[in-house]
Amino acid sequence: MTAKLERRALLSAFAAAVLLLPAAAAQAQARAQVELQAPDSVRALLERHLRILRGDAQMPEAAADRVALSRRTRREVADLLATEGYFEPEISLRRGEGQGWRLSVEPGPRVRIASVRVDFEGDLAGGEDGRAARREALRRDWALPVGQAFRQAAWDDAKSRLLDAVSARDYAAARLSASRAEVDPENASAALSVTVDSGPPFRLGPLQVSGLRDLPADLPARYSTLEEGEPYDRDRLLDLQSTLQNAPQFASVIVDIDRDPATAGAVPVRVEVSEAQPKRFGFGTGYSTNTGYRGEVSYADVNLFGRGWELYSGLRLEQRRQSLYADVFLPPERARHRDSFGGALERSDLQGLRLTTQAVGVARATTRGDIDTQIALRLQHERREPDGAEASSANTLSANWTWRKRAVDNLLDPRDGYVLEIQAGGGSRALLSDQDFLRLYGRYVRYQPVRGTDVLILRGELGTTIAPSRDGVPQDFLFRTGGAQSVRGYAYQSLGVSEGEATVGGRYLAVGSVEYVHWFRPDWAVAAFVDTGDAADSRSDWSPKVGYGIGGRWASPAGPLALDLAWGREERSLRLHFGIAIAF
Q: Which of 258, 276, 333, 513 is within CB 3.0–4.6 Å of 531 for a Cys-Cys bond?
């Protein structure tokens, strides 16, 4: 029984297909075969928007229907051309041989802007406090000037830009009160007029924060530099939104105001936030030619004790260095500075020198534009164990100041600009230190564009530690060099002062580097470089070592990764160096 039913279903389907074949053939014959004759300036527009040209329209056989189709097509073409400034086109749709049709379009002259009038109403129409100068600047920046071709999209965009420029500062409730485009097709000209009603000037009121659950209520305000009573400026609100979005306590942030003219005198600033997960564990691995393979476990809590404090701690195990650390960062004080405190335990074994350091410290960091400064106090105990020499230890309470300006086009992939860093720090026997010393250090890196995307990188470092001798001065306040991002061709921190069989820090440093990077693809480059420098315990002992070589660069999301093969001239050996070339 089942087999009979299946055969009957197959026969029915076959019969239906046979019956439908004539109808499908007739439908295919009736499909439009339309040849377009039009200048290149409008061809793409018509092909993209006219249904009759896309092959899915049916061409009628009846004369009356063909007349209706012709009229509808001419109207559609005329409407499309009008959006591009053609108001006097010649359009015809005729039937050719067989099933073919021909659409001929001659767009005619294009309308151009003959005059523009921009007027203002509301507070901006006044004459005091630079309003006249602002009105003239807005008229000067009008995006559809006299002589330009009229296009509907350009007309709409110009009005939108004008309104945006007015409402971005002071006048949050600005609106277009009138706009008119008078087109004269015979003279192919258009007269434009726009009137903007600025409304009243807005001034900022208090922050109104919503969305907080566990974070302190005053945390968003501590990141804000907005002052009650200051004029409304959209960019200032966007800066606060970006600052809060970058804070680890928040998953999302929206900063805005109500544009009700009734509240213009003191409009509240709405800050809508959603909180991020405060506690995070992290695990990582890596490799560096300086310190070898690395494994790390970290823990962070960005709402420590429910106060919005940020705790970052971790254990990092490298082949030649190991460290245990914990740092706590307090919320900023009106976005002007950030205080922090923390401690670390570190052990390293580099160039025959084993160092064990325990330290605690406090710091205050300030950021103003592209300039970062930091003042820090650090209490530390250091034990030195050089191979072939006597072990020693030192206690130090040091004060340190760092000033850094990073004026580059991109911190993660610098191609133009410079980085300048200056450090000063020291300790005194009168204040818990075993030795009187003052350390001065400066570094300058210049990124100079060459021939489009190529970059010439110039780097220089100078340092000196003023002290009776290096004895009792912590290694952090002395100098060693060599390795990636230093003098390539030599092992990491291998250039310094010999003590027994180890290399220790000296009181003088000078390093220079010239590097040329050729980007042959957007994310791949080759580089050639020459480095020179040395660290010594006296100026007379300073003897520059030279390294030079070639390398490859890959523009990874974390910054350009650098793999360099360098020849150390004094050591007469090749060394491979791996690092990341960011504007640190």
A: 513
